Fold each of these.
Amino acid sequence: MTQQEFLKLIVKALDSKRAEDIQVLHVEDLTILGDYFVIASGGSTTQTRTLADEVEYQASKVGKEPLHREGRGNGSNWIVLDYGDVIVHIFYKETRSFYQLERLWADGDPVDISAWVKPDKI
């Protein structure tokens, strides 16, 4: 599975559980932490856990397990799933507003994921 296919799988998993404001940043030239950051929000701590569970479930179906997980305890305001070259950040929306990872990594190149998510229903 290529990186792009894996990113698509993650984005689709998040979108299937109604993640808010999904963004993918290409940060390979900015850090050794990973090649891509996937950032998404949930409307509650329960939803953040559900989003993380869905990403892990879909990734495990293609043989990928996170190298490290963080933030699964009570509260689940920020869950990180580290897949090596792809790091998934799932935030409770107020926590995301506070930390503003997109601003911190603003030099990263945004990846167009519009073909991978369902259009907003009005």
Note: The two ends are 34 Å apart (CA to CA).
Amino acid sequence: MKIADLEFGAYPVFLAPMEDVTDEAFRLLCKRFGADMVYTEFVSSDALIRDVNSTLRKLNIYEEERPVVIQIYGNEVEPMVEAAKRVEAARPDILDINFGCPVKKVARKGCGAGMLQNIPKLLEITRAVVDAVKIPVTVKTRLGWDENSKCIVELAEALQDCGIAALTVHGRTRAQMYTGDADWTLIGKIKENPRMRIPIIGNGDIKTPERAKVCFDKYGVDAVMVGRASFGQPWIFRDMKHYLLNGECATPFTFAECMQILREQVQQSVEWLGERPGILHVRRHLAATPFLKGLPDFRPMRIDMLRAEKLDQLLDIMSRIEQQYGG
């Protein structure tokens, strides 16, 4: 599969862009475990052109994580064009436009998935951004605004006509947010459309290697994108790639190996962000990691782990967890 001049091997698996999740440290970790391409946190076009420091920081990318995508969002043409030019100067491999974020603070401003309520403007922005930069431009969006306005099959054609190099579709509407099951049937219909020439990347509920294989085989997508399933288990990319390429499950990491990876993630987060912000940032991964779920009498230790505010304290608790449950 190719996106513009970027070559990917069989069964590409990408790390989805997620706010407060896909910072440099986490992207590098997922890349190490087999993610074929990684995306930054989404970048506000308005904040970028105002030189907001926290937003400018999101443009930091590293050679080790390539190919890497910087994603922007906004609801006006000129700021999006200016932001796209600034992103191009940061030298990502791809620029992605976010027309899919469903969270209220983004969508209610007409940004992200909010743009699905104004398709002409969405296409105008896309066309202007494609024309403004030389790097490949892609789009990530949803099936539609709600159950009564699932426009993605027609929208995919229109976006292709704007000149995008690939399209990612999350199999939910904006109204669904992240509830219910992702519906991949319309993603499959996009792939069945003989007019579509660009790669289609499927997103939504890719939680296991087996599900990733089904999505490739049943719906014909060119790549899949993993989001929330990567929380607390960056090794999911290694497991998925092994299954997709070999047809069998990878040898699972031991409890001690998983704990060591999480410790490394904690330490990297603190190194990048500082002690307290880094610990707060990594808590969602510690809370979500699946290999700690179901441990007997684990609740008190889990509470201690998620309340820790000092690095030494947190690492000590993690060591005690390993001693008690690592067997």
Note: The mean pLDDT is 95.
